[in-house]
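Long-time lurker, finally posting.

We've been working with Very-long-chain (3R)-3-hydroxyacyl-CoA dehydratase (Nothoprocta pentlandii) and I want a structural starting point before designing mutants. I don't trust myself to interpret raw outputs, so I'm hoping someone here can both generate the structure tokens and explain anything notable. Sequence follows.
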Amino acid sequence: FTVNTYLFVYDLIQFCGHSWIFTNMIIRFMSFGKDSLADTFYSIGLVMRLCQLLSVLEILHILAGIDKSRLFPRFLQITERIVVLFVVINSQEEVQGKYVVCVLFFLWNLLDVIRYTYNMLARTGIYYLPLTWLNFSLCILLYPLSVLAKAFAICVSLPYFESLGTYSIKLPFPFAFSIYFPYILKGYLLVLFIGMYFIIQNLFSERKAHLATRNVKKKQS
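Top reply, 14 upvotes:
Generated this for you. Predicted structure of Very-long-chain (3R)-3-hydroxyacyl-CoA dehydratase:
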């Protein structure tokens, strides 16, 4: 009971945070049109960062055994967002005003609003087949788009990392060793697309398992 209540509260907090971001984005777009896209990060960036930092707890939930999700795919999904949000977008003010940030935030929050709604209801033993289908099907369609948006955000940020030298390190003599951060980001692009293969595989297996379980329970009832 205690663990289930804790997980419900966690899902509720995440649902409230992502719902606020998603609603705020829609209202701002309806009110200001394309002008609202450029300052998306400035208006909702703080809440977005808090929600993503809080999502690190999900890795601990799996390690502690209170969440039965697979660790590796969930770890990849969370770290991808952390890297892109905190390392790429948050560190480069010029990138924060790009339209790709708005697209990325929209995809993330659309998926998370549905996911945390499903999780909250599941904690109380409530399962709606349409919501289950949406939760485990929409992510398969939108996750590749979010990976493309992440990759595009990294590509847009590269000139700024190159010109400003952010995170690049050059050690003095006698080490004569340097780390050129744009090379690391270019390598991370490969990691993104390799990770996408494993995550989509996991999403398909989760979809098959959950939809089959729900259909069986529906027939029995």
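Before you design anything, note these points.
The radius of gyration is 19 Å.
The chain has a mean pLDDT of 90.
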